[in-house]
Structures are given as structure tokens and as C-alpha cells.
Amino acid sequence: MTAYLIKSVSVVGAAPTDLLIRDGVVAETGAGLTAPDATVIDGTGLVALPGLVDLHTHLREPGREDAETVESGSRAAALGGYTAVCAMANTSPVADTAGVVEQVWRLGREAGLVDVQPIGAVTVGLAGGQLAELGAMADSAARVRIFSDDGHCVADPKLMRRALEYVKAFDGVIAQHAEEPRLTEGAQMHEGEVSTRLGLTGWPAVAEEAIIARDVLLAEHVGSRLHICHVSTAGSVEVLRHAKTRGVKVTAEVTPHHLLLTDSKAETYDPVYKVNPPLRTATDVAALRAALAEGVIDIVATDHAPHAVEDKECEWAYARPGMLGLETALSIALDVLGPQWDLIAERMSRAPARIAGLDGHGLDPAPGVPANLTLVDPATRRTIEPAELASRSRNTPYARMTLPGRIVATFLRGEPTVLDGKAVR
Ligand SMILES: NC(=O)N[C@@H](CC(=O)O)C(=O)O
Ligand SMILES: [Zn+2]
Ligand SMILES: [Zn+2]
Questions:
Q1: 76 and 213 part of one domain
Q2: What percent of the chain has pLDDT over 90?
Q3: Which Pfam families does the protein's record reference (predicted)?
Q4: Residues 32 and 128 in one domain
């Protein structure tokens, strides 16, 4: 196993130091390190972060390997600075059995580019009718701890309660896609001024907020852990703030796109901007940014949602919702938060690793720690070219935008997955 000596790198924004990576761990840190057998990387101007952890990734395998595979999504993740991703359950077949989660877990191991942690479905077939075999998925080789029907809301309050109660036994968490389905029938975009002008059916903020309010009360009642996927409205932030003040065990994520883009993008009628929950208003964006800085929102999660060309390059109403995210998330975070490295490390690595219970991830580079880390060049700006992305899909909303920051290298347990900004395999 090759050793790597990274010279003069800033660890999470601190004064430059050297990092020696050997045998899968950070062996030593300090100024003036030497290691004759090591490959030297010049870290001048670079920032070392704990490898990013994505709590919300769609890898599309099994079932839609034309849009993404575990391997292509893992490569996109590594290039984005990630060392672990949690793979959503809305595959085909659905990841609602021990067999399917073990298959995804095994494919992740074989690709070997990031740790792929499968998320299990809450209900059989994501149909919302009966609980899936949560215990069997938890006990499987994939050791599932996060369960979600993402793409669909667990709308039945009794089923949601039972799921919350069930996962307590193994310190699991239910990740809710908060969308009251009766309030979003036929919805195409955020319900507001722009939807009225364009004549598109609206997805009202209250459809999200009502479910979050219900579920934080349920989580409080049964004393379970709840996670809220892709929070998108100012009102949701207020509900979460209230719940956290009461000590409810709730965590929440925001996506890069909800931190940057607004519903005015729908005026282009370009379905690349169609996403669930929809892009909201500038007021919502400001509230989400403030909540992320404050900690009312715990993490940034990509909701990387690859879609094949035929599902995206069509009329708005027929297009599938969802956007790519893994290869651009750090750049968006840097753009939105500025070089607040400790905050970025917390929201994109440490906190998601804690929520997912991923040992060995989310730890700042220090002696003895598994070498899961990424090197960022904050000074370089790059223009996003969809054709250059490692994802099998092309549905990035940032095409031809120039964004700050470039991932120079990523290490998974001491092995580089990315070097010189390029995937190693
Ligand atoms: N976000 C999306 O618009 N789409 C996701 C599902 C989801 O996250 O709800 C997908 O699977 O494509
Ligand atoms: Zn969702
Ligand atoms: Zn999703």
C-alpha cells in the first residue's frame, strides 16, 4: 500500500501542516515531516476536509442502470469529495428486503470508490400500505439504520408511528420525504406568484410543513429519531426550530439546489429545474441559508437524482423531478457559505456521519484516524460541463455556470480514489 505525504495543507482551515497517510490511516501530522517511501503531494493552498458524507443519494441500481449505477454514482461521489454515500431505496426492485440492501451494499464494496450505505424502504414497495422487513434489513450484512420511502411520503400517521417505534430497538432513524400527497396532486412547481403567472399547478409550502409538524410531534410522543429530507421552506425551518427547542430528536437536511436556486427558474420551462420538493422563493432560500448556519438544519445532503435523457428532456409536465448533485455540492456550499471550513466540515461530513452512524467517517484528519479525507482547492473556479461529469446522467442545473472550488484528491481508507482532480479508476 502506497504511503502519501501531503505537504503544507490546511486541515479544516487551520495553519498549514504536513499529513502522512500510511496503512489506511493518518499516521502523522506536523510541520517538516519526511517519509522517503511516500508519494509527495504539494498541498500548498489546499484545504483538507474529512471525506464528505452524503445522507441522500439516488444510485438507481438495481433497475435504472441507464441513468446511474452504483459504480458510476460512486465515481461521481469521489470526484465530489465524498467518501460515503447513503443510497436511497426507490430502486427497482425497491430496497425493501435484506436481499436488495445486501445487493446494493455488495455492489458498493466491489466498486470500492466510496462506502455505499443502503437505506431501506419503510413500507413494502414504497406503497405506504405495510411496514417492510425493517428488522431483517437492520440485521443484514448491510446493517441498515436509515429507512425512507423517499420519492413518496409515509403519509399514514399510524404507519409512521409504528415505523418510528420499530427502529428504536436498533437506534435507527426514519428519513421522511415530507409531502402531504392530497395537497400536491398534479403539482408541477412551487405554489406562488410564478406558478400563477405560468399557469402551472402549485406545490404549496404547507404540504411540506404540515407533515414535518405532524412527524416531530409523533417523534416526540414515541421518543424516536426522525430525519427530514430536503427541507425547502421558511415555514419548515420554524417548525424545526420549535421542535428542537422542545428537545425532539429530529435532524434535517437541505440540498445545494434549495440553497441556491429559486422558482423563477421555472420561467425557462427547462425541466432540468423540475425537482421535488420544488425550488422555492428567495425568502425561503434566505431562511434555509440562515438555518444551516445556525444549526436548525443539521446537514447539506445532495438528493443526487440522476435521470435518463428521455425522462428529462421532454415537456415540463412529463419530466421526472430531480437533479444531479454529487459533483457540484462542495462548490455550491463554498459559494453559499464562503470559506467557513469548520462549518462546511460539520454540515457535510461530521454531522451526516453521526446521523448515519458511519464509523470511521466524519473525523477530522488526525493521527490514528482512518484516512477518509478530501483535498479542496478553494482558489480555482471551474465551469460545469454536463458532458464531463462522471454521472451517467446529464441533468445538472449548473450547466455552464462557473463555481468556486475544485476537488483535487480524495482518499478512502488511505487509498486515493481521486488524484489531480481525476478519478483514479
Ligand atoms: N428529488 C426528486 O425530485 N426526485 C427523487 C425523489 C425524491 O428525492 O423525492 C428521485 O428519485 O428522482
Ligand atoms: Zn424526496
Ligand atoms: Zn431523494
A1: yes
A2: 100
A3: DHOase (PF12890)
A4: no
Q: In CATH, what number is assigned to the domain containing residue 298? A: 3.20.20.140
Which atom of ligand 1 lies closest to the CA of 179? 9
Residues 296 and 375 in one domain: no
Could you tell me the three cell numbers for 28? 502523522
CB 177 less than 6 A from any atom of ligand 1: yes
Indicate the average pLDDT of the chain.
Answer: 98
- Report CA(319)–ligand 2 centroid distance (Å): 16
227 and 344 part of one domain:
yes
Let me know whether 270 and 381 are in one domain. Answer: no
- 374 touches 12 (CB < 8 A): no
| Ligand located closest to 211 CA | 2
pLDDT tens sequence across 298-320: 999 999 999 999 999 999 999 99
Question: Based on the number of CB atoms within 10 Å of its own CB, is 315 exposed (0-12), middle (13-18) or buried (19 or more)?
Answer: exposed
Residue 362 lies in a domain: no
**Predicted ipTM?**
0.99
Residue 94, domain member (yes or no) = yes
Distance 26 CA to ligand 1 centre (A): 37
Q: Is 156 annotated as a binding residue?
A: no
Cβ 328 under 6 angstroms from ligand 1 = no
- How remote is the CA of residue 41 from the centroid of ligand 3, in Å? 36
Total domain count for the chain?
Answer: 2
Domain region containing 149: 51-356
Q: Is 83 in the pocket of ligand 1 (CB under 6 A)?
A: no
* H or E element at residue 136: helix 134-139
pLDDT tens-place string over residues 261-293 = 999 999 999 999 999 999 999 999 999 999 999
Query: Does 361 fall in a domain?
Result: no
pLDDT of residue 377: 98
Would you state the pLDDT for residue 1?
83
CB 255 within 8 A of CB 325: yes
Query: Is the domain of 249 the same as that of 325?
Result: yes
Q: Are strands 189-190 and 202-203 parallel, antiparallel or unpaired?
A: parallel
Q: Which residues surround ligand 2, an ion (CB under 5 A)?
A: 150, 177, 229
Question: Closest Cα to atom 8, ligand 1: which residue?
Answer: 151
Whether this prediction's pTM lies above 0.95 is answered by: yes
The edge-to-edge listing of strands for the beta sheet with 52-57 is 52-57, 82-87, 115-118
Please check whether residue 312 lies inside any domain of the structure.
Answer: yes
Confidence of residue 294 (pLDDT cuts 50, 70, 90): very high
Q: Calculate the alpha carbon distances from 345 to 49, 83, 341, 374 in Å.
A: 6, 13, 6, 11
